[in-house]
Amino acid sequence: MSVLWVFLHLLILSWEDMKDQMLSFWLLLELLLTGLLTALWNGREIVWFPGLFLLVVGKLSGERIGLGDGWLLLALGMWLPYGMLMEILFLGLLAGAGYGILSGKKEIPLVPFFTVGFVLTVWGTII
């Protein structure tokens, strides 16, 4: 059930990112808080580092990487273990970089690529 919850949020956020290059604060907050409550309830470890790192990089780079992407990774860290989150980050950045190079675009929405990374990572664990 939690996989579906996260996936639905990723789909909506992907659409927002492609359309407006902005992410809904309230949707990110909902994903983060429900993940935090679920993690605390289940005694699961919360993964802070990747999201916080991306927020710092985004701030230091003048938001060349959007702060919304950092907040999304922070929210995903409430739901996913470190290894899965790093795999999603790696796959998303790799796919996004490939798309940027092939399309010649300098600014691309990252959330759709994180969503692809999520699907590939979750699919790989299910199989």
Overall outline: globular
Beta-sheet strand percentage?
under 5%
Number of domain modules: 1
Q: Classify the helix fraction into a percent range.
A: over 70%
What do the pLDDT scores average to? 93
What is the count of helical runs?
6
Radius of gyration: 14 Å
User: What is the H-and-E element order?
Assistant: HHHHHH
Biggest sheet details: none
**Structural class of the secondary structure composition?**
mainly alpha
Contiguous runs where pLDDT drops below 50 for at least 5 residues: none
Our measurement of the CA-to-CA distance between the termini, rounded to an integer number of angstroms, reads 17 Å
Per DSSP E runs of 2 or more residues, the count of β-strands stands at: 0
Transmembrane segments: 24-41, 46-62, 82-102, 109-126
EC number: 3.4.23.43
Organism: Hominiventricola aquisgranensis
Enzyme class: hydrolase
Task: List its salient traits.
127 residues, mainly alpha, globular, aspartic-type endopeptidase activity, transmembrane, Prepilin peptidase, hydrolase, membrane
